[in-house]
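Running low. Any example?
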Amino acid sequence: MDLGNKRTLRIFIIVSAFYSSLRILSYSISFTQSYFNIDNPLIPDYLTYYIAFPLYFFIPIFSFILWYCFRSLKSKDYNKKVVFIIFGLIMILYFFEARIYMFIQEFNPYG
């Protein structure tokens, strides 16, 4: 593999890993806050489950992407097709995250 291609794929992997780690951190914070911010007796108890339901789908996706990125960076083995698929998935999740979130919320059993 050409050195320039390898460097480009490494940049895509690093960007994907950085974005995935930020999203996991953001989702974990919102998930944790939903459990600690419900002290009001007027707020129903199942509200935390309502908030957490879409995160059950997003956190494993981003965790898998982060795992693959770290594995690729550690082994320095970059599969061109997989890197572009992961980067494309990251771009789709970046641009359409709100729509995907609302689509998952339609099937939320707590709402």
